[in-house]
Predict the structure.
Amino acid sequence: MERDGERIEITISSRFENIELVQVIAEHLCENAGMDEDGSHWIGMAVREAVANAIKHGNKLDVKKKVNATFELNGHDLSITISDEGTGFDPEKVSDPLNPQNLMKTSGRGIFYMRTFMDQIRYSFVAGSGTSLVMTKNLAKGTGIASGKA
Amino acid sequence: MKATTRDVNGIAIIKVDGKITIGAGDQQLRDVIANANSKKILLDLSGVTTIDSSGIGELVGSYTTVTNNHGKLKLLHLPAKLNELLHVTQLITVFEVYENEQEALDSF
């Protein structure tokens, strides 16, 4: 882990047991920035979902492939970038879990939770360089659920 | 994840403790429910410390499996954060949720 002022970066191998490492960093960073326990938890959960997707769908559980997480805090603005070495996907093709025909599906809620708990999420793909997900949150706005998104 | 099962008048009360997350309990949950010796299952989730979308997916999958086998799966003692996750995904409309064990048992 590398710390440079308000920037923290960590690179993990693609193992599910590493997810919590990244989640804990997110939660501590938010708590240190003055966010309450609930708000920090929901941001940590968005990070958990993003890293899980990077490991499972991006790097396809290949432990030789890495997932990089970067946290940048400027004032109240938190920006989190999760990058993998996968081939990318079309976020528009991810089905809406609230659609009644998808309600009983056993998967497909991870991105929905990220969108719920963060202000904005944006995927970008560069051929040969993997997938990057940037999630942003204004910590002064409060938590995802309580801010009325639900 | 750790699960303990007890039988009360033919109803399997399964108490789940720990994490139900990807790679740490998500598949275990379905196995525990599949191996319960009853079609009437009350899942006590008071001891769940962390759950993610994979864990939520396993709850949904378990519910579908039990229902397809003409059984009933109901939830008891939802932790606040799990309750909120079920609300935002509208799954709270699918599950029968109880805060009182006797009330839950009487509902079967």
In short: Residues 53-68 of chain B form the longest helix (16 residues). Chain B is about 35% helix and 35% strand.
